[in-house]
Design a protein that fits this description.
2 copies of one chain form a homodimer. Helices cover 44% and strands 16% of the residues of chain A. With 424 residues, the first copy, chain A, is of the alpha/beta class.
Chain lengths: 424, 424
């Protein structure tokens, strides 16, 4: 007979849990058969002792099977999703999902909300009047069947174990654990019934993972979980030292996303969207290789297939807009050596574009347009950023952070590559 | 502002907590200002990361001050208690407290109940009809004033933090942690308002600490906590490979305890009672040294001062008695090399003398008389033990354990010393 204390003790002492012990514990936690104080003791033991690959695969499987698991195997075309570990200005999902769907891939994408210095895809989508992120399972399915894509909030019926663990980790000091992060992400993505998954693991100043080694470990861990579940996972490690694209906020990130689909997005954002999308086409079986995939994607943009109803998405007057703007200027000339994603993301949060705590309300109209990025040459007085704001006190808080967000040097700077590594 | 998550993270990462962080956490846990799932995450982090001596002293102080703290400084004579980490047949407190009190020491002793293979002083005392272990603080105090001793249950008003931590540790796999054990014991003992404390740290087959190193670490840790609180602590490491004395059970341990006070107790039990008591007299300031203390103690026994009302305690017909007895005999002759305290203690528990789970009822009349101990010579057919039982199924379970509790060798065996080390 499984016993919660004995299972906790096994992990506490660094010994390997059996598959049935893991299944029992995750199920008992999810159903409330064991109290939350036993769950957090276990989470801390996992934090400090880790999981073997076999334990982690089973733990993720137990989480995945704690609720409904979607099945799109009857659909034509591959079922592929993309997930990012989160960064500043990371609106990739919004242009990527329709672009990939236009090329014949089914994208059942469930996204989250932002907290702290990073934004959330759902918050950005909610800039669009009438967008509703909560879909019941049958509506979620019919959207995938009809449009080849859906971009919605996490369903209540999927992976209830993750909702419990996520809230308890937040309250028990067990958030930054690679096995707990990897199982949280992968259980939710695997519950979408995917054939393959493309991961964007951010690394740098504005990312959860500050160094390449920990980003690589997280990526490798998630690729391993995918393999154990028979789902091909490709992980891109991408730089998050500076914001992605030029827009940080909600409505302004929606506009920039549409720009990508119109072929006029900023270079770095466009590059990342196309590289991630190309991989999805290859693993989803609609392109023979990288070059073929890129050609297909460019055709989808050039033909307008990626943006079926451009009028509905280019009437910016429908989007919320901030009351005023203020420009931040360079005090000296030279080349931008640092454009700090953490400071800019936190400044956007202080403006009201993000949440300090989960209960905060979002102001969708405010944001920061980043006008000078790493490698750009600036003269004294040139604009570094434009702040769109609604509240003077919030503006002041944002300005204080932005005052030290750029470093300008006297020598030319070559920006580092955006995509650092690919792990399959 | 203190924050529970930040405090947990600090300990999780092996960094030292400040005094005010410790005070805040213990207070918030005790008052219920933070949920139990944060408390167990902390307990697991402490289990795996440990405490520095400064942290442990402060943690213990915070526990100690979570409730009422007794003060006997106005009484004549030293205030000294003894605590044992628990063993099989360990009834030392019962003869020791009146013996020491008869010599002028105040003994405000709060004891616990037994669980598993070890018995509890309160359970043994409850063999006596009319004994009630729950005293309110004023009655507890007046007993010490009048008799120089009280032997009662843990007061509800003392160290509420320990009651919470103890129950959560039991349920969260965080019991066998030296800092958590040491702070639990010491907070309760320091709350008794002691001048000095004598500890009996058991080590061996029937003890919580199986090896001398961990027993020494626990003892040293508790001596250090005492020093940080200005309370002199002497820790004896004593052998618990075989039961202490000859009686294991409740009513039968009461009888053996009175035998010690009548000067006719078994040798090992008498030795330990006198050695612990002598130390209490020395640290309590009523004896100039060990020899003087022993002489005082022997006078107290010989004069009858240690047993003021012998008639009330030697009418054994008032104690519960088991229905039947059964003798376990040696199958071969030789010398006893092992008399396994764990097996005998567990057998007594199965008979009904102890508790498998905290809710179990005690049968005070059942028990085991150990008739052959390490070093004794036995012939084939000689009795090894006599089982007093009330239930045939329980007898069978006990017999199964006892069948393998003795090892008899063909060469003479010299028993190891009972007192292994003294740490001050």
């Amino acid at each position: 007979v499984a016993n919660a204390v004995q299972i906790i003790e096994t992990k506490r002492d660094g010994r390997e849990l059996s598959g049935s012990e893991i299944d029992w514990f995750v199920d008992a936690a999810t159903t409330g058969a064991i109290p939350t104080y036993q769950v957090t003791a276990m989470l801390m033991a996992v934090f400090l002792r880790g999981f073997t690959p076999a334990e982690l695969a089973r733990w993720t499987a137990a989480m995945l099977h704690s609720g409904e698991v979607l099945d799109f195997s009857d659909l034509d075309g591959g079922v592929v999703d993309k997930h990012s570990t989160g960064g500043v200005g990371d609106k990739v999902s919004i242009p990527l999902a329709p672009l990939v769907a236009a090329c014949g891939i089914n994208v059942p994408m469930m996204s989250g909300r932002g907290l702290g210095h990073t934004g959330g895809t759902l918050d950005k989508m909610e800039s669009v009047p009438g967008f509703s992120p909560q879909l019941d399972p049958s509506r979620f399915r019919s959207m995938v069947e009809r449009h080849g894509l859906v971009l919605a909030g996490q369903s209540e019926t999927l992976v209830p174990a993750d909702r419990l663990f996520y809230s308890l980790r937040d309250a028990s000091g067990t958030v930054p654990s690679i096995p707990l992060i990897a199982s949280s992400i992968m259980s939710k993505k695997l519950a979408e019934g995917l054939d393959a998954l493309v991961l964007d693991v951010k690394v740098g100043l504005g990312a959860f993972m500050k160094d390449i080694e920990s980003a690589r470990e997280l990526a490798t861990t998630m690729v391993g979980i995918g393999a154990a579940h028979g789902v091909g996972v490709t992980a891109f490690l991408t730089s998050m030292d500076q914001p992605l694209g030029r827009e940080v906020g909600n409505a302004n990130e929606m506009r920039e996303s549409v720009d990508v689909l119109l072929g006029r997005g900023p270079e770095d954002l466009t590059e990342l969207v196309f590289e991630l999308a190309a991989e999805m086409l290859v693993v989803g079986g609609v392109a023979t290789g990288h070059a073929d995939a890129l050609a297909t994607l460019h055709r989808a943009v050039d033909s307008g297939d990626a943006l079926r109803d451009p009028a509905a998405l280019t009437d910016w007057s429908l989007l919320p807009q901030a009351r005023s703007t203020k420009t931040i200027s360079a005090s000296s000339g030279g080349w931008v050596a640092r454009c700090d994603a953490m400071r800019i993301g936190t400044a956007a949060m202080r403006l009201g574009a993000g949440r300090e705590v989960a209960e905060d309300e979002i102001d969708h109209g405010v944001g920061i347009s980043v006008l000078a990025k790493v490698g750009d040459e600036v003269r004294p007085g040139d604009p570094l950023a434009e702040i769109a704001f609604n509240d003077d006190a919030r503006l002041a808080a944002a300005e204080e952070l932005l005052a030290d967000a750029w470093t300008i040097t006297s020598e030319a700077v070559t920006p580092a590559p955006l995509i650092l590594e690919t792990i399959r």
